[in-house]
Design brief:
The complex is a heterodimer of chains A (420) and B (294). With 420 residues, chain A is α+β, with helices and mostly antiparallel strands. Chain A contains nine helices and 18 strands. In chain A, 42% of the residues are buried. With 294 residues, chain B is an all-alpha fold. A two-stranded antiparallel ribbon of chain B has the order 1-2. Classes of the chains: A alpha+beta (420), B mainly alpha (294). Chain A: Pfam families: MucB_RseB (PF03888).
Chain lengths: 420, 294
């Protein structure tokens, strides 16, 4: 059978000798080298790109930690827009997160993740923000002065937006096409600041909360410089001195020009990946377009109204670990202060009684008791006995008489607090 | 011997008119689009929005909302308010499988199908060169990508206009834009979806040069698509996922944010270009150096 062969350079059929065959083999090899080279160049440029992005710390004049904190405090950048990437890795087991932290039902939602079918059924900001407690999320933020803010959680083919314009706060969930409307409380924070949840996960808010906790128990240093979102920044490092806390260090990258925190990293004492890492990937300090903050409920969307006082109970003291989404915890009692503070509360609903049943039932413990035994380790002390649940940062002690102690502290510190 | 003397023929030919360069593409496009199989594929794709539209209409005929609590394909909860969203829902529903499968069939068949039906050698007799033939095949496949996407979009727009109201469009960021801008964005979305299919088109073309069986090439291409989609689902494999061609497919939805979120869209375009470069050149290396026996 006659064959149609590649014709490049072959001088007809007469040239089918050994040499021609070898030349053809060489040409073949050269040709196959092209896709390999293309793939190699692509891989190399990706590698070089990441290497370039992580190196090249900018040269900035030296600054003392006090001056840097003062710079942050008097930072007056009111207008900005940008993209924030938040990665949270508390080391929570995904299903029982609601249980182990003793959370109210809203906390349990975090476990569903954004991919869950029923996620997004609740449009209230509190429920949505607990979703940020695990995994990586992309947020887009925009702010123009104290009473115009916008925060959007970028999801796969959907978006959750929180828009504050004056005293109107709108939440829009495009996945379920629902709107949540509330009126911002005028009295809280003197009506000047955004409600706590509006910018809860942005580097500024995290930095502000952390700096509020700085006192003698913290060592504050400036550790070199970094480039964040294309801007030069100083790295402020806060290290708690107390031995009981599980917080290893907090690093805040502060914009060298205007003192805006651009990156916030919280690493646990145990080492490993950061527990919270929030950083601008893009930031612009220009005035955002005015219509960014306009919102009117779309036609056909379901609108729910909210009373303003729903937010009052949100716990936001006691160190940055609390950002992991402690929802309404009424009757909370804070023991200790700063890094070593421990929240003491009554366990809601079944957790405490389940633990009690598990302890009393001994070997014949009910399913709840068995579940608790498998999740937490059993401890006892002068307070009686209970279970300790550990994550990479936060530990919780649930006693058999229904009390819960939560804090970014070691187990021993929890037991000590419970024994008092 | 019947060896084609392409080089001498090309040298003897006078300078070709620019239209001549297109004639090869025209004949390839004709081969693709005149096939019953292609027409049937486009018909199936056009039927998807009809099905989705009727299903949503029936579900919501008692006044309820579609996609309770955010379930179902993306954007489905907005379809009842604005028929334009049927375009986005249909594209989101067909992009994971139907669209790339159709492209895989056409791309996988492009070279191997000719080889198995014994027409490839006659194609090579034409004084065009293998590189140019391959380019024409790839362009024809990309034309099919565009046609398939536009078929879904146009059918969805027609069904959406028939069954649901049209009007100002609420973007997923909660910003409302005029219907005209909504249409423009829909067109941009269709373009992004068509470009998303370039990767699998190049992959299919490469597979197609490896074998002389059209069926085997199509099955391999669609199999690779399914494998990539499965690997993309496992969080444990997140290290390789950014390099899988379907990974950023849903990024077309980012065109519906205000302002448009470009990061993933550009990642997607870069990834598709990379696949086109790697597998396009691999197809070229294989096709220009292989012996064509059929």
């Amino acid at each position: 059978m006659a064959r149609i062969e590649p014709t490049h350079g072959t001088d007809g059929a007469a040239d089918a000798g050994e040499g021609a065959r070898r030349a053809r083999g060489r040409r073949k090899a050269v040709r196959y080298a092209v896709p390999v080279a293309v793939a190699g160049v692509a891989a190399a440029s990706i590698g070089i790109g990441t290497a370039l992005a992580s190196s090249g710390d900018p040269d900035l004049p030296k600054i003392s930690a006090q001056d840097l904190i003062a710079k942050m405090a008097k930072s007056d950048a009111q207008q900005l827009s940008g993209t924030v990437k938040v990665t949270t890795d508390l080391g929570l087991p995904s299903v029982p997160s609601g249980l182990s932290l003793g959370d109210a039902p809203a906390g349990g939602k975090a476990g569903h993740g954004s991919g869950g079918k029923d996620a997004g059924a609740d449009t209230s900001p509190q429920a949505k923000l607990t979703e940020l407690a695990s995994g990586t999320h992309t947020l887009r933020v925009a702010a123009d002065g104290p009473d115009k803010q916008r925060l959007s959680i970028v999801e796969r083919a959907a978006e959750y937006s929180l828009i504050r314009n004056g005293d109107q706060v709108w939440a829009y969930d495009s996945k379920s096409n629902t709107v949540h409307h509330s009126t911002a409380p005028k009295d809280v924070h003197g009506g000047k600041e955004a409600p706590q949840e509006l910018r809860g996960a942005s580097p500024q808010e995290l930095a502000k909360k952390t700096l509020a906790a700085v006192d003698d128990s913290t060592s504050v240093t400036v550790d070199g410089t970094a480039k964040v979102a294309g801007r030069d920044a100083y790295q402020l490092v806060l290290k708690p001195k107390a031995a009981e806390t599980t917080v290893g260090a907090v690093r805040i990258a502060v914009d060298a020009k205007n003192g805006v925190p651009l990156k916030f990293t919280l690493s646990p004492k145990g080492g490993g990946k950061a527990v919270v890492d929030a950083a601008f990937t893009k930031v612009d300090f220009g005035k955002p377009a005015a219509d960014t903050f306009d919102f009117k409920p779309p036609k056909g969307a379901k609108v729910t109204e909210d009373k303003a006082d729903g937010k009052a109970g949100k716990g936001h003291e006691g160190g940055p670990g609390k950002d992991a989404g402690a929802p309404d915890l009424s009757g909370m009692n804070v023991l200790g202060k700063s890094w070593t503070s421990i929240a003491e509360l009554k366990a809601p609903g079944g957790v405490g009684s389940g633990a009690g049943a598990g302890a009393k039932g001994g070997k014949d413990a009910g399913p709840a008791g068995a579940l608790l035994d498998s999740l937490g380790s059993k401890v006892s002390g002068s307070f009686g006995s209970g279970h300790v649940f550990s994550t990479r940062l936060v530990n919780a002690l649930v006693t058999d008489d229904g009390k819960v102690y939560v804090g970014a502290v070691t187990k021993d510190a929890l037991i000590k607090a419970a024994s008092k | 011997m019947s060896q084609a003397e392409v080089t001498t023929a090309a040298a003897a030919r006078p300078a070709p008119s620019p239209l001549w360069a297109l004639s090869l593409f025209r004949s390839e496009a004709g081969t693709v689009f005149r096939r019953w199989r292609t027409i049937a594929l486009l018909g199936v794709l056009a039927a998807v929005p009809v099905l989705v539209g009727i299903a949503v209409k029936m579900e919501t005929s008692d006044g309820g909302a579609a996609g309770h609590g955010g379930g179902g394909p993306a954007f489905i909860s907005q379809v009842t308010n604005n028929g334009l969203f049927l375009v986005f829902t249909s594209l989101a529903a067909t992009l994971p499988f139907f669209l790339p499968m159709a492209v895989g069939v056409v791309a996988g068949d492009s070279v191997a199908g000719e080889a198995s039906s014994g027409t490839l050698r006659y194609l090579l007799v034409a004084p065009a060169g293998r590189t140019r033939l391959l380019l024409a095949k790839f362009t024809a496949t990309f034309a099919f990508c565009c046609a398939a996407t536009l078929t879904v979009a146009a059918s969805a727009l027609a069904v959406g206009a028939l069954l649901f109201p049209l009007g100002d469009v609420t973007l997923i960021s909660g910003v409302t834009v005029s219907f005209g801008e909504g249409l423009l964005r829909a067109l941009a979305v269709a373009g992004a979806v068509a470009l998303s299919l370039v990767g699998i088109a190049a992959l299919g073309l490469f597979v197609s040069t490896l074998t002389n069986s059209g069926i085997a090439a199509m099955a391999t291409t669609v199999g690779l698509l399914i494998t990539a989609q499965i690997v993309d689902q496992f969080p444990q494999l997140h290290a390789v996922q950014p390099y899988l061609f379907p990974h950023y497919w849903l990024s077309f939805a980012d065109l519906l944010r205000a302002p448009v979120y470009w990061d993933q869209l550009l990642d997607n375009l870069g990834l598709q270009a990379l696949y086109a470069a790697v597998f396009g050149s691999a197809a070229w290396a294989r096709f220009t150096s292989k012996d064509v026996t059929a």
